[in-house]
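Hi all, long-time lurker, first post. I run a small reading group and we've been trying to get comfortable going from sequence to structure in the token notation. Rather than ask abstract questions, I figured I'd post a concrete chain and ask someone more experienced to write out its structure so we can walk through it together at our next meeting. Sequence below, copied exactly:
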Amino acid sequence: MASSPLNFHLEQYDGPLDLLLDLIRKQEINIYDIPIARITQQYLDYIQRAAEMNVELSAEFVYMAATLIHIKSRMLLPRDPELEKIAPEEDPRQELVERLIEHERFKTAAGMLHEKLVIEEAVWSNPQIEQFRAEDDNPGLAVTLFDLVKTFQAVLERAKKRPIYEVTTEEVSVPDMIRYLRQLFERERKAVSARELFERQRSRRAMICLFLAMLELVKAQALGLVQTDARGEIGLKRLEGFENAFGSGEVMNAIEEGYR
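-- Answer (accepted) --
Happy to help. Here is the structure in token form:
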């Protein structure tokens, strides 16, 4: 049995992907070449320790354990060399790797936005924010990307109660969602509710890709965040930089490269 690298006071994780990423990063494993047998054993060790300590884990942890065992069994099965020439089999780890990379990007983005919020709160007191608002009638000036994160998290929480969001074979990427937003805002000049955009999506993956696409376009100053009042919904609107962002094609090329 492979020993676990974790110091078992039993660290807490938000989900199975967080646990897997921690195992991978602590051992400096190449995420594109995961030693699935070792990682599976260490993951199962964690599940066992949790059970021994009466720590309740969600069904997602159990499902991921089954997924890892399935991937491990597929990698152990011999392949017919002749069949491999006709129809090469995709690496059984590929889908897991893509999910881990996507999850890590989302965590990194959320962490950066949290740091941004902390900095803003340290710099701006409430009276200063009100004065800043008074200098410009645009209420969107007071909206931060962290507000968008909170909206996204709220939609994801509601989506957990709707099985339809989880049962899908939809293949979607961040560049796909960039194109979706570009087409939408080429027609729409008014603000569009971020919550409604998230809820139009048919899967959790699509919502995550949409969220990352929004971040990319806000960073590129193609879209901006607005809010009608202090308790109003967060919306997205087209900015003057929208045409410039897509005009040369550099934005899309950079995003495509970044999400390969």
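A couple of things your group might point at:
The chain has a mean pLDDT of 77.
The first strand starts at residue 192 and ends at 193.
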